[in-house]
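Reminder to self: C-alpha cells first, then the designed residues, so the page reads top to bottom the way the pipeline ran.
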C-alpha cells in the first residue's frame, strides 16, 4: 500500500470514531454495564425537559438504590443550572431541580 493510501485510510478510519462529549462526564465502567437506556437517549430525554439548554456535566450514579443519569443543564441567560435525573433503566424522568448559584 502506498504512503498516500495509508494516510487516506487512516484519515477515513479516524473520522469514523465518535467525538468526545463537550461536557464533563463521570460514567463508571462498573455501572455502565447495568444500564438499559443509552447515554444518548437519556441526554435527549433530559434536553427535551430543559429546552434551549446545553449539557455541562453528566454523572451515572446510584442514588437511593436507583441507577440514574444526573444531567447538569445550563440555559443561556438564566443563572444556575437545572439538574435532571433520568432513570438509566426506564428512561423516565425522576426529578428536575433548578439550582440557582
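Designed residues (101 positions):
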Amino acid at each position: 500500500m502506498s504512503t498516500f493510501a495509508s494516510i487516506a485510510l487512516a484519515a477515513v478510519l479516524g473520522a469514523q470514531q465518535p467525538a468526545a462529549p463537550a461536557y464533563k462526564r463521570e460514567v463508571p465502567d462498573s455501572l455502565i454495564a447495568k444500564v438499559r437506556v443509552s447515554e444518548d437517549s437519556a441526554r435527549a430525554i433530559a434536553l427535551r425537559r430543559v429546552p434551549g439548554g446545553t449539557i455541562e456535566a453528566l454523572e451515572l450514579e446510584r442514588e437511593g438504590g436507583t441507577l440514574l443519569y444526573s444531567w447538569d443543564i445550563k440555559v443561556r441567560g438564566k443563572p444556575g443550572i437545572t439538574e435532571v435525573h433520568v432513570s438509566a433503566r426506564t428512561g423516565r424522568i425522576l426529578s428536575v431541580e433548578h439550582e440557582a448559584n
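Residues 13 and 19 are 13 Å apart (CA to CA).
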